[in-house]
Design a protein that fits this description.
The protein has 349 residues and is an alpha/beta fold. The chain is built from 15 helices and 8 strands. The termini are far apart.
């Protein structure tokens, strides 16, 4: 897809009007790992869309002006047709990247990925050693396979990002994981947000860092450091409650699950329709998706006047999973914001 086509698509939309640019494609919920913190809770993934159905979804993406696809799972490469589906995305002129645990990427897959030229491959690591990583994933050898995948992709000039979910069992190793990624020439991204299980399971939540652990993790990331005067002034000028409370999901991106259900985000799993029954555009323009886009800060009485707002990155999906209402506050988001705010206050001159 040429830069002129991308620019024309962006300019075709009205200013300040939400429009979709990315679709998250959950090819499968099957996974060969058994991570204790996973919110999908080992869903077997019945009645998955066929390759032809996914191609139809991507063709509808083009008609809507969607330019970016994120192929994810479960473990996307457990499907034998994942690479052929991505190949069709390439033929259609879509940009795409993959999210994977890396265990299914061998030299043949890496060679095909080089030909497909994804914008990035994101690989999950849960520790800096086999003992830590494999202990969390429940799969001996998964650490070595993930690092081998990263090395093979980097050797083929494919951009790689190593990502980790920061939990009680691995927060002390985050900086070691960062050094590991940087030493390989990969990007690195730690995420401390642990979601409840989609079927109500408590095991993922039990993996969260406690207050003291999260405080130490935040300190190691430098989240307590005050900004310089110029940077603080620039951010203050651009800052607004909307930037902290209004999510891009259902506004600029959304998700299709393996069975064709359309939801705002992989973490915000409000059913909005099914592509086996409606077109992607009909679901995007219809309810409840259109109603979610109309949400404003005024609709969030718990959050709009909160003193922690400047340190909050609110997740409506987490609020929805906690209370069944995405407009209410998230207790977990509040907990993390409170700790970060306290750390900044203690470090303020």
């Amino acid at each position: 897809m040429s830069e002129s086509i991308i620019l024309s698509r962006l300019l075709s939309h009205k200013q300040d009007e939400p429009f979709p640019t990315q679709l998250n494609v959950e090819l499968t919920h099957r996974c060969n790992l058994r991570c204790s913190h996973c919110y999908l809770e080992y869903n077997a993934g019945r009645d998955e869309l066929t390759a032809d159905e996914w191609v139809e979804v991507m063709q509808q993406c083009l008609e809507m002006g969607i330019m970016f696809i994120a192929f994810t799972g479960g473990e996307a490469f457990l499907r034998p047709d994942t690479l052929s589906i991505a190949g069709r995305a390439k033929e259609l002129g879509l940009f795409f990247h993959f999210q994977s645990n890396g265990t299914c990427i061998d030299r043949d897959v890496a060679d095909e990925l080089k030909r497909l030229n994804p914008t990035m491959v994101e690989l999950t690591i849960m520790g800096d050693t086999p003992k830590l990583h494999d202990g969390i994933t429940g799969s001996p050898g998964s650490f070595e396979k993930a690092l081998a995948a990263a090395s093979m992709l980097l050797e083929r000039s494919i951009r790689v990002k190593l990502k980790t979910t920061v939990i009680s069992g691995n927060w002390k190793s985050v900086q070691a994981m960062r050094r590991l990624a940087e030493g390989m020439g990969a990007a690195f991204q730690p995420d401390p947000l642990v979601m409840p299980g989609v079927f109500g399971g408590e095991e993922p939540v039990s993996c969260r860092m406690n207050d003291e652990e999260f405080q130490q993790f935040a300190l190691s990331e430098g989240w307590d450091q005050p900004l310089g005067e110029e940077a603080a002034a620039a951010i203050a000028e651009l800052d607004s409650p909307e930037k902290h409370l209004i999510c891009a999901a259902a506004r600029y991106r959304f998700t299709v699950t393996p069975s064709g259900e359309v939801i705002p985000c992989v973490l915000w799993r409000v059913p909005c329709g099914n592509i086996r029954e409606q077109s992607l555009r009909e679901i995007w323009e219809g309810e409840p998706m259109a109603g979610l886009r109309k949400t404003t800060v005024k609709d969030m009485p718990d959050c709009r006047g909160c003193k922690l707002l400047s340190d909050c990155v609110r997740c409506p999906g987490l609020a929805y999973m906690e209370s069944g209402d995405s407009l209410l506050k998230s207790e977990e988001n509040c907990r993390m914001s409170r700790i970060i705010s306290q750390l900044k206050a203690e470090n303020r001159p």
